[in-house]
Amino acid sequence: MQQSLDFREECDVLANEVSGISESEWKMPTQFKNWTLNDIFVHLHFWNEMADWSLTDERSFRKRLQKVAVGLQAGSMRPIENSVIKLHGRQLFDVWRKFSTKMSERWSDLDPKLRVPWTGPDMSVRSSMTARQMETWAHGQAVFDLFGRVRPESDRIKNVVVLGVNTFGWSHKVQGLPIPEQMPKLELKAPSGSVWTFGEDGAGSISGDAVEFAQIVTQVRNVLDTNLKREGEVANSWMASAQCFAGPAETPPQQGQRFVSVVS
Question: How far apart are CA 23 and CA 18, in angstroms?
Fold first, then answer.
């Protein structure tokens, strides 16, 4: 399953960025809601375990799902995640790293259409693994921004792009907006130089860098901080509030709120 290999590469890239940082740097606040690196890796490991258990240990999955329900009702998962995973710094990194590597290996030979339980409807293992890559990539952006570095990208980003395309309707529904009849045509340049196209003519267009499109649908950048070209009402409204992840409606960052601190 290619998505498993892409998840592994995503984790490798993030691991290379943080493997040598000090314990004090793990406590530094990022541009993402002031989450520290500890917060980010607790969150990633918590949901990696949930995804893996949905396949390998449904009893543990169902038990933790009860805690998730409490957090969702309270409107915040942070206290739940931190009460379950109490590791920090290098110990947290080592556990996340080992688990994500083993997970990618366990999932690599699965039938992509195999269904597993989740917090809502069941989902395919391909969708589950795509979600894990998306979360790793999106939260990883805050890490690269914090240390002033541009992340090494590859065409593995296509999984996030496709997720953004597939959630066109969801992005409108979760924001309480009517779902347009047609998605704008997309022409996006991949890190390899290839051009990925989605949709058809008739409802405007969006063109530019595939990574920037992924940044918009994951809400790690404001569209005005990108060079994406948008034509048409649907294209502009979608990029202003796109949301490819589940949960309640979230507000994208304001212009200039999230950025690479110092490029080095």
Answer: 11
pLDDT means per 10 residues, the chain with 264 residues, are: 97 97 96 96 98 97 92 84 95 98 97 96 97 98 96 98 98 95 97 97 96 98 97 97 94 95 62
From CA 244, how far away is CA 213, in angstroms rounded? Answer: 11
Q: pTM value?
A: 0.96
Give me the phi and psi of 243, to 5 degrees please: -150, 110
Q: What is the pLDDT of residues 104-150, one digit of tens each?
A: 999 999 999 999 999 989 999 999 999 999 999 999 999 999 999 99
Q: What is the DSSP string of the chain?
A: -HHHHHHHHHHHHHHHHHTT--TTGGG-B-TTTT-BHHHHHHHHHHHHHHHHHHHH-HHHHHHHHHHHHHHHHHT-SHHHHHHH----HHHHHHHHHHHHHHHHHHHTTS-TT-EE--SSS-EEHHHHHHHHHHHHHHHHHHHHHHTT-PPP--GGGHHHHHHHHHTHHHHHHHTT-PPPSSPPEEEEE-TTS-EEEES-TTS-EEEEEHHHHHHHHTTSS-GGGS--EEESHHHHHHHHH---S-SS--PPPPTTSS--SS--
Question: How distant, in Å, are the alpha carbons of 163, 197, 198, 231 from that of 203?
Answer: 20, 14, 12, 9
Residue type, 190: A
Q: What is the DSSP annotation of 69-93?
A: HHHHHHT-SHHHHHHH----HHHHH
CA distance 129 to 52: 9
Sign of the dihedral through C-alpha 55, 60, 63, 66: negative
Length of the chain: 264
